[in-house]
Every structure is written in C-alpha cells, then in structure tokens.
Amino acid sequence: MVSLLFVGNIFVVSLSVADLVVAVYPYPLILSAIFHNGWTMGNMHCQISGFLMGLSVIGSIFNITAIAINRYCYICHSLRYDKLFNLKNTCCYLCLTWILTVVAIVPNFFVGSLQYDPRIYSCTFAQTVSTSYTITVVVVHFIVPLSIVTFCYLRIWILVIQVKHRVRQDCKQKLRAADIRNFLTMFVVFVLFAVCWGPLNFIGLAVSINPSKVQPHIPEWLFVLSYFMAYFNSCLNAVIYGLLNQNFRKEYKRILLALRTPRLLFTDASKGGTEGMKSKPALSKECQNRKD
C-alpha cells in the first residue's frame, strides 16, 4: 500500500521540484537585474540561470506529460497498472523524464540561444537566434507533450462520462470519488500550464517562421506579458492543490499553525500526506478487454 501511494504521487513531487528550481537561483538574479537595471553577474551566471530556467520549464511539461500517462493507465487500463507502474518501473520513468529534460536543454549551449534579454531582465531562450531550432523547441517541448496530455485526458473524460451515465452497464466498473478529484486536480494543472505557456510559445513560433516581418509587429508589452505569464505558472500549482485537494488544505493549515508552534509540525505526522490512490478502479476483465 505504501509503495502504491508513493508511485501515485512521485511525479507530482517531481513536478513540484521543477516548479521550485526557478525560485532557488534564477529568480534572485532576475530581481538583482531589475534593481541594477541590467545584468551585472557575468556570462557564467547568465548561462547557469538560463539553464535552470529551461530545466524548470521543460521539466514541468515533461512531468505533466508523465502524470497524464500515469493517470490514463491507472483509470483506463487498471488491470495492467500495477505491472506498468510498479516501484522499480516508476523510478525508471522518473529518471528518464529528467534525463530527457537535460538532453533537451543541452543544445542551447551549442546554438548560443541562452542570452540576456533586457526586456524581461533575465537570461533565457532567445527565439531569434535560430529559426529551425526555435521551431523544433516549440514542437518538441510544447506541442507534442500537450498533444499527448490532451489525448490521455480526453480518453479519461470519455471513460468518466460513460461510467457516470452507465453506458457500460454490462461492465462492473466503478471510479472512486478520490480518483475523480485527483484527475480533476491534474487536469486543471495541465489547462493552466497550456494557457500560461501558450502565448509565449506561439509568439516564438510566429517569429521563427518569418522573423523579419513578424518580430517588428509584436509589441514589447505583449512579449513581456506572455513571458511573465509563463513563469507565473510555477506559482499556481501549489494554489491549485490547496483549492482542489482537501488533504493539501489540511497540510497547509498544519504548516501555518506550526509556524506559530513548531512542535505541532511533528505532531500526528503519520496522518499527513497527499490524497493517494489507495485502490484501483474496479474493472472486470471483460470490460478491460473490450475496446474503448
């Protein structure tokens, strides 16, 4: 049971780590650049900051994709879920997710696309350095993952609707309320990610297709707004968990109380934890073997 809870939430924890990466190093340097009205930390810190920015962004989208696949297998293919996502396999999937994230960022150093942009006071991916590379980045790092996530969540929605309206009356299939809440939480996380990052990626795609004609017509305020909208997304996930997940709300309240009385932080620790997947949806073998 412990391993099942761990498996169900490991990618959520990984997504949280990706969100926190920008707060550890890049954001303090951005604040310094704003105060000094320019970058004063040198090229090495600029490259490190840009790398960690990319690590956070691509890590987030790849983890969101992994979460969607995990939820899809858990709800739509529950009989095979234990085999696909046992503890060993899940750790391998997690490692693969971060390896792909690092591999996706490394080409920036060869292209020279990590540069300081005075409009946003940060070292980040420069969309105009290479047309082909920018298109590749948008397609591989945004459009393809979001297409996979969209497919997974559409299949889950279809199944949820069918179960709700009892379309499959011959199947002994049930979805627990906790499963639906977990799915809805991660679905909202995905939608907000797409909304926050969509404008910046589409601007990059438009600029890369025809830089000379498109770039001069994009207002600076629109680019700045889309950029800060994108990075504001890192702050939203914790809010979403708190609003939609009762266990997260309890933990937030406990932490706030512990700030006033530190000993409470370690009281009833065994009662904490996120709302995990304690049991699989009940699926009969005939229902599983039928085509969706």
* Radius of gyration of CA atoms, rounded to a whole number: 21 Å
Strand content: under 5%
The tally of strands reads 2
CATH homologous superfamily designation:
Rhodopsin 7-helix transmembrane proteins
The CATH architecture designation is Up-down Bundle
* Low-confidence runs of at least 5 consecutive residues: 167-172, 268-279, 282-292
Mean pLDDT: 78
Number of domains: 1
Strand order of the largest sheet: 1-2
Order of helical and strand elements: HHHHHHEEHHHHHH
- Please tally the helical runs, counting DSSP H or I stretches of 4 or more residues: 12
* Name of the level-1 CATH class: Mainly Alpha
Approximately how much helix is present in the residues? over 70%
CATH topology name, in short, is Rhopdopsin 7-helix transmembrane proteins
Span between termini = 29 Å
Shape: globular
- Characterize the largest beta sheet: strand count, sense, and whether it forms a barrel: 2 strands, antiparallel
User: Structural class, from helix and strand content?
Assistant: mainly alpha
Pfam families: 7tm_1 (PF00001)
Region (Disordered): 270-292
Domain G-protein coupled receptors family 1 profile: 1-241
Main location: membrane
